[in-house]
Amino acid sequence: MINLGNDWDSYVQEEARKLYYQELRRFLKHQYAAATVYPPMGQIFDALRHTSYEGTKVVILGQDPYINQGEAHGMAFSVNHGIKIPPSLRNIFLELQSDLGHAPPNNGYLMPWALQGVLLLNTVLTVEAGRSKSHARKGWEFFTDSIISKLDERNKPIVFMLWGRAAQEKAVLIKNNAHLVLTAAHPSPLAGGRFFGCRHFSQANAFLSKHGMAEIDWKLQNQ
Predict the structure, then answer these.
(1) DSSP 62-88
(2) 7, 9, 46, 64: which one is catalytic?
């Protein structure tokens, strides 16, 4: 039984009863027993655990978890304290500095964003160590598509940041004109720097302020 301790619980438990999820669960049970899988099993749903349904203001959509030891902990783009900041996250911090003037922090722990209502959601929630996209097309896409669609049902406005082609393909799920959809290249160095200049952080805050919601404090403290 998945227990997140917030208003995602009833919805996620409903999804967990569906056939696709039962098949996904069997796959994951085998994978965690036979291989090294990230994030740790108890952290798979941490994005939902730390950002409630009603509390979501911004969705940043990633692809799948980091593939190196100690990095992934259940929230897209975030890494634990003491872990070297991955290249994509470094680029996110550089864009944040250009957009809002916040100097890059010395850590990549994005929990302060999550606790303010930034849902750091990957489209695939697990991965085998060293093998990007190894858990793609195993059922996670059905689950995370349902999460996006459930958020789209809300009349309270949400900012969706879709970075890269995989994330942008999810735009078809966002049909409610109450929401703001922002698209940009993926922050990975492989995108050739086309992510820079998107100014999504300031656009998100302007949108939230316009709709009477508190802006996100994007500045992260050094540790």
Answers:
(1) ESS---STTT-SSSTT---TTSPPPHH
(2) 64
